[in-house]
Specification:
- The chain has about 110 residues and is mostly beta strands.
- It is built from no helices and 8 strands.
- Strands 1, 2, 3, 4, 5, 6, 7 and 8 form an 8-stranded antiparallel beta sheet that branches.
């Protein structure tokens, strides 16, 4: 029987700088859905938020697996089937005084 798990990474956060999430062990999972919701975007010079799913075999060496580039509020999703033992989400922002509000990010994994 397949099991489904949800990991909340960000809940109604305001993002104005770069960071990354906690690490999640997902070596058992067969597929993942990365869900992103952004309720508001402000700033000038094209504020851009990049949500990056990273994978690692050892929690030390990280490689970028998938990237979602966001310049407007909305809902985004990525289905991933090929990832390593550990995953985390990193984010970067660019633009002049960029702010992304009401940001939710969560992973749904199935094994």
């Amino acid at each position: 029987m397949r099991q489904t798990f949800h990991n909340e990474i960000l809940k109604s956060q305001t993002i104005t700088g770069n960071s990354n999430s906690a690490v999640f062990g997902k070596g058992w999972a067969l597929e993942m859905l990365l869900n992103i919701r952004v309720r508001g975007v402000s700033g000038t010079a094209t504020p851009t938020l990049k949500i990056i799913l990273q994978t690692s075999p050892d929690k030390v060496n990280w490689a970028n697996l998938e990237t979602e580039t966001i310049t407007a509020s909305g809902e985004y999703a990525k289905r991933i089937t090929n990832f390593g033992k550990y995953v985390r989400v990193a984010w970067t922002v660019t633009g002049t005084t960029p702010s992304f509000t009401g940001v939710d990010v969560y992973m749904q994994t199935k094994g």
